[in-house]
Amino acid sequence: MSDTVSLGIEALRERVDAIFRKAGLNAVQAGAIARVIVAAERDACKSHGVYRIEGALRTIKAGKVTADAVPELLTQQAPAIVKADAKGGFANPAFELGLPPLVERARTCGLAALVINDAVHFSALWAEVEALAEQGLAGLAMCPSYATVAPTGGNRPLLGTNPFAFGWPRQGQPPYVFDFATSVAARGEIELLRRAGKPLPEGWAIDADGRPTTDPEAALAGAMLSFGGHKGSAIGTMIELLAGIMIGDLTSAGALDLLRTTTLFPSHGELIIAFSPQAFAGGRPGNPLGRAEVLFEAILGQGARLPSQRRFLARARSEAEGIPLSRMEMEQLDRFLELGLGSV
Amino acid sequence: MSDTVSLGIEALRERVDAIFRKAGLNAVQAGAIARVIVAAERDACKSHGVYRIEGALRTIKAGKVTADAVPELLTQQAPAIVKADAKGGFANPAFELGLPPLVERARTCGLAALVINDAVHFSALWAEVEALAEQGLAGLAMCPSYATVAPTGGNRPLLGTNPFAFGWPRQGQPPYVFDFATSVAARGEIELLRRAGKPLPEGWAIDADGRPTTDPEAALAGAMLSFGGHKGSAIGTMIELLAGIMIGDLTSAGALDLLRTTTLFPSHGELIIAFSPQAFAGGRPGNPLGRAEVLFEAILGQGARLPSQRRFLARARSEAEGIPLSRMEMEQLDRFLELGLGSV
Predict the structure, then answer these.
(1) Phi-psi region for residue B290, left (φ > 0), alpha (ψ -120 to 50) or beta?
(2) Number of H helices and number of E strands within chain B?
(3) 100-159 in A: which are within 8 Å (CB) of B?
(4) Chain-centre distance of CA B134, in angstroms?
(5) Which long-range contacts (CB under 8 A, 24 or more apart) does A51-54 make?
(6) In sequence order, what are the beta bridge partners of B4?
(7) Phi and psi, residue B269, nearest 5°
(8) E strands in chain A
(9) CB A110 to CB B113 under 8 A?
(10) Residue contact A284–B249, C-beta within 8 A
């Protein structure tokens, strides 16, 4: 008997949606986070798939997310800014609400920004830049998280793992997409090594006294480090400024102060910028989408990979054969559905 | 007798301006590049200071820059995009021309972009995000260069050193500014180690066969590597897409194909994005400039530095005491002024 079951994408989405309805979320909240969790599981992006349900349920149970929030678009002051207030709910329904006006504004203005405020956040940003790429737009997305990363030269958590994502549309195939933490590693990776009793690679973290450490426990009590030394630390700081302070929302330090734990999902905002390649390239020789393919071919032609390639392969597999889930994962889904918030 | 002379900022600017006029540049070209070269020298940013004059003169002598170019603003199609055509001249006069409408558009739209096309480029991008910060705007600037960097997992030059700069305004003091190459090192640093007969640090470069090397000669014949591994490589690729292909201008590979050498300055475009923190934060609690100071204090408070701090200290010194130049540098300036293009 196989230890893995295959579930259709739509079947898994319905099940995750039902879990969150049972846990008390309204339809708009449950629908949006079910879509994003299932998209991650479909892409074999396990760290953001059904694994995240438990954390979301804990966050709901702790009263740290508004279960019946209905996000609202705010009246525009500036023509290239769209503002979506998540009303204390998850960021994803606010993104879904803000996406159409963001696309419209980017096409009209050439570029535009979507600001999401007062959101609880846990999802990967690639889904958002992919949604823009489906509309033929390039996109950048970034947000704080909670303070777990020391700035280069410092010794205490201040920055978040602050993800940074970019997407570029491609015709007839998945977009060029990257999405990464601006810390060397994700906090979850350190947690996994701790559970496995394995040391961390060098350069991931410092202990509570600011000394380099490879001990996961010491790292979790200390601080993670930025990718790429001072350059990554600068980008992480930029994300605090643009996607925290500039949009009038919490920094990673503020989010942690408010929550006082990293076991629940943090509240903060998010910044998404959409670019119309047609508007930018207008009047210049060459089609930007066609020219980009030449660049991608040159990357692939020397044996390098495009980011997200493995994720898109997994997606194609899931679409053809269903999403593989372990028996343990299936049993957990059943338990979540049966017991609701009593399961966490 | 001292080996160093001190020259007032304005005196050096006049001298550099006169050198470029003697070399055949018109007033708008000579004025803008003299300002940016002297700003770098004033900030002890030697790699972009008077050291760059020789390269600029060689580029002029080779006929690779239009000496009498007058940049032009193009008619707007999209309200948040400003386009400045450098007309084959240096990028800096086009930036100076595009700055006021960029500031105006960013204030009106919330964010806006300046596209510079058909420019010869050699200057640091911090000057541009600082100019935005002086107007109370946050800014991002990026551009390709020429293909000298292999994408992670590849073995041949394809990406440029593609600088990425960010600025955030601060009241009563210099802005928060970073500006770095998305390669591990600048090409000039490898060149300096080659001249000194010293090996490169590990991880900077690969040889022509794609193998890691610490030999500067082998590195110059091979390819440089991106900072931060695949993450930096992805950001370098993003810059090719946004600030090369999207704006209808050359990629780093295209710039090298056209020039066939890295000893002259390349032609390409540039993308600058300006954000109005007031427009983004409007209606939200807290003043974004004040809140940013809390973040900067937290960085400094744990012994970490803000990027550009050393540069601003040098600037203050130069403003008080003049710009220190070696006797050799002074003699070179005299020779440039006397012989014009005959000096290179």
Answers:
(1) alpha
(2) 13, 12
(3) 108-113, 115, 117, 138, 150-156, 158
(4) 18
(5) A52/A122, A52/A123, A53/A16, A53/A19, A53/A20, A53/A332, A53/A333, A53/A336, A54/A332, A54/A336, A54/A344
(6) B326
(7) -105, -170
(8) 4-7, 72-73, 81-85, 111-120, 138-142, 163-168, 176-181, 205-206, 212-213, 223-224, 267-275, 323-326
(9) yes
(10) yes
Q: Test A298 with B108 for CB contact under 8 angstroms.
A: no
Class of domain A71-183+226-307: alpha beta
Q: In Å, how far from its chain's centre is CA A318?
A: 20
CB A115 within 8 A of CB A157: no
CB contact under 8 A, B238 and A178: yes
Contact A169, A106 (CB under 8 A): no
Distance CA(A46)–CA(B103), nearest Å, equals: 44
Q: Which two tokens stand for residue B341?
A: 């293009």
How far apart CA B30 and CA B16 sit, in angstroms, is 8
Every domain of chain B with CATH number 3.30.60.50 lies at 184-225
In chain A, CATH 1.10.1530.10 sits at: 1-68+308-344
Residues 235-294 of B with CB under 8 A from A: 237-238, 240-242, 245-249, 251, 253, 273, 275-277, 279-286, 288, 291-292
Residues 6 or more apart whose Cβ sits within 8 Å of residue A59: A65, A120, A122, A264, A265
The residue behind tokens 């419209």 is A104
By C-alpha distance, the chain A residue nearest B140 is A238
Q: Residue A137 in contact with residue A274, Cβ under 8 Å?
A: yes
Task: Please name the CATH architecture into which domain B184-225 falls.
Answer: 2-Layer Sandwich (3.30)
A56 contacts A20 by C-beta, under 8 angstroms: yes
CB neighbour list of residue A175: distance below 8 Å, 6 or more residues apart:
A129, A130, A133, A134, A167, A168, A169
Query: Does the beta carbon of B211 lie under 8 angstroms from any beta carbon of chain A?
Result: no
CATH classification code of B1-68+308-344: 1.10.1530.10
Residue pLDDT tens, chain A, 344 long: 568 999 999 999 999 999 999 999 999 999 999 999 999 999 999 989 999 999 999 999 999 999 999 999 998 789 999 999 999 999 999 999 999 999 999 999 999 999 999 999 999 999 999 999 999 999 999 999 999 999 999 999 999 999 999 999 999 999 999 999 999 998 878 888 998 999 999 999 999 989 999 999 999 999 999 999 999 999 999 999 999 999 999 999 999 999 999 899 999 999 999 999 999 999 999 999 999 999 999 999 999 999 999 999 999 999 999 999 999 999 999 999 999 999 99
Q: Tell me if A323 sits within 8 A of A41, measured CB to CB.
A: yes
Residues of A assigned a catalytic role: 47-48, 189
